[in-house]
Amino acid sequence: MIRVLFVCLGNICRSPMAEAVFRSKVKEAGLEDRIAADSAGTGSWHVGQPPHEGTRRILQRNGIDYAGIRARQTTAADFESFDYIIAMDSSNIDNLRVLPGSGQEHRAVLKKLLDFVPPSGRSDVPDSYYTGNFEEVFELVSAGCDNLLAFIREQESI
Hints:
Number of helices: 6
């Protein structure tokens, strides 16, 4: 099983949106028995909470299931449990790199989601918790997830 972890700051807006969108795309491709997704936040403020109302609303509007998604905090063990750790922004990458144990050799590929999107003038997915622009974030996340899935399929020959 190929495991993908999406990471943002609080794990209630961007990363759970990416988890749900990616799961939907994986299911649509018939690969749910080969690829699994999860999400986490670098902060602990929202642990146990469901996705933000704005995230839930945009996912519902697009017919994407988010059942069972609850906020959790990243741990050093994630670097061993996941094959791909996909952050929403540069700050998330910085926070992941200073996690105890994260500097050790690990198998996880660490990238930003927009690394998989052709140059668009953006390198970070904006934080909809602060901007309120869930539509823009959804569009960026959807494009990133399409290209990430294509990348994984190529890398893993599936």
